[in-house]
Amino acid sequence: MMNFTIFLALIVVVAFLLIVVIMVQNPKGGGLSSTFGGGGSQQLGGVKKTTDFLDKSTWYLATFLLVLILASNVAINKGGDSTDSKALDPDATTTQPLPDAAPLPTTNDATTANDTAQ
């Protein structure tokens, strides 16, 4: 169970980073590079390459998230208990307890005879 908890924490962190990286990007192509004036011939510390970095980091984070999700499936403790349906197992026999039979109402012959006589 501890391995699954580690995978779960990593999935949450990577998903948060992926959200941040996607939100920083500008859908019209400007993005973070246009904030620093990277749209023209000016460059502030290589900001023109920022969109390439954000694009690649989005793909890497998305791939890493997918791998973590698939790997977490292996880490889930299956346990010895089988939670599969017994309907799929032809050898399984299940016995269900019968409900207690409710007592039938008793009819008194004297009252029945009086009811029919009237």
UniProtKB/TrEMBL annotation:
Can the keyword Transmembrane be found in this entry's annotation? yes
State the Gene Ontology terms under molecular function: protein-transporting ATPase activity
- What InterPro entries does the annotation carry? SecG
For the keyword Cell cycle, the answer is no
Q: Which UniProt keyword terms apply here?
A: Cell membrane, Membrane, Protein transport, Translocation, Transmembrane, Transmembrane helix, Transport
A GO CC term assigned to this protein in UniProt:
plasma membrane
Task: Give the location in the cell.
Answer: Cell membrane
Q: Where are the transmembrane segments?
A: 57-76
Known role: Involved in protein export. Participates in an early event of protein translocation.
Q: Family, per the entry? A: Belongs to the SecG family.
User: What is this protein identified as?
Assistant: Protein-export membrane protein SecG
Q: Which species is this UniProt entry from?
A: Seonamhaeicola sediminis
